[in-house]
């Protein structure tokens, strides 16, 4: 996929994604820094997002910012970059992705119309994409980006969201999964090994506790102990007592 790559229309599902310079450039950027499996996951997420945006009732009559949704879903896993030197040492993987996408907007001069609010929505869509308790209660573009990304994990089994077997098949046939399940586990466990401190307060650490630092159970007990030691009841709650005692 070159920097001039475009996304095909999917006739059966009736999905057409925007063919703008920004989206074409984002596709090339995604391929440059992530694996083919990640590339296909992000592209499928964009298709699912636009598919479901037509099926989910909305309270607002304002038109959706489709380019923002597609850009955000395409770029949402830049934090899975194959070159680990591109990643921060102290930020969650979703924040890395959001920051990298924002930097891309700043570096390329294709962001006309991306004012501060629009850029913030994009950042939120990426940073919150794995946190439904936030994303589902944000602006429509943030919510739909999250739903599209989660749809690629569930497919037709996505609870509460109508995806037919035929729609799912057309998207997956166009952009195959390429061992996504196995690579996802490798990435999650890899993050637990690479920068564990950024995982302890979120879902990524669940994979370290369950599967260890290599997906095969290595050091999972030690990782679980460190996560527990830094959990809120062990750190935050005692701090309240210490503060109140000092204040007496």
UniProtKB/TrEMBL annotation:
InterPro entries: HD/PDEase_dom (IPR003607), HD_domain (IPR006674). The keyword Hydrolase applies. Pfam families: HD. Residues 39-132 form the HD domain. The keyword Hydrolase applies. Keywords: Hydrolase. GO terms for molecular function: hydrolase activity. PANTHER family: CYANAMIDE HYDRATASE DDI2-RELATED. This is Metal dependent phosphohydrolase. It comes from Mollisia scopiformis (Conifer needle endophyte fungus).
């Amino acid at each position: 996929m070159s920097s001039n790559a475009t996304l095909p229309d999917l006739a059966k599902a009736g999905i057409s994604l925007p063919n703008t310079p920004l989206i074409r450039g984002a596709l090339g950027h995604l391929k440059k820094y992530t694996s083919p499996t990640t590339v296909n996951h992000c592209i499928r997420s964009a298709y699912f997002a636009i598919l479901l945006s037509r099926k989910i009732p909305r309270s607002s009559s304002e038109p959706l910012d489709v380019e923002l949704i597609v850009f955000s879903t395409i770029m949402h896993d830049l934090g899975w970059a194959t070159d680990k030197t591109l990643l921060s040492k102290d930020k969650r993987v979703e924040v890395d992705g959001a920051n990298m996408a924002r930097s891309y907007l700043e570096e390329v001069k294709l962001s006309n119309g991306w004012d501060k609010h629009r850029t913030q929505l994009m950042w939120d869509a990426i940073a919150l994409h794995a946190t439904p308790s936030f994303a589902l209660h944000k602006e429509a573009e943030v919510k739909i980006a999250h739903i599209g990304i989660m749809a690629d994990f569930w497919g037709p089994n996505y609870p509460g969201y109508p995806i037919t077997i035929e729609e799912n098949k057309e998207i997956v046939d166009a952009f195959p999964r390429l061992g996504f399940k196995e690579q996802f586990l490798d990435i999650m466990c890899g993050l637990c090994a690479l920068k564990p401190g950024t995982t302890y307060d979120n879902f990524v650490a669940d994979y370290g506790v369950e599967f260890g630092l290599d997906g095969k159970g290595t050091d999972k007990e030690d990782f679980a102990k460190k996560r527990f030691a830094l959990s809120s009841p062990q750190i935050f709650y005692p701090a309240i007592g210490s503060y109140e005692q000092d204040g007496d």
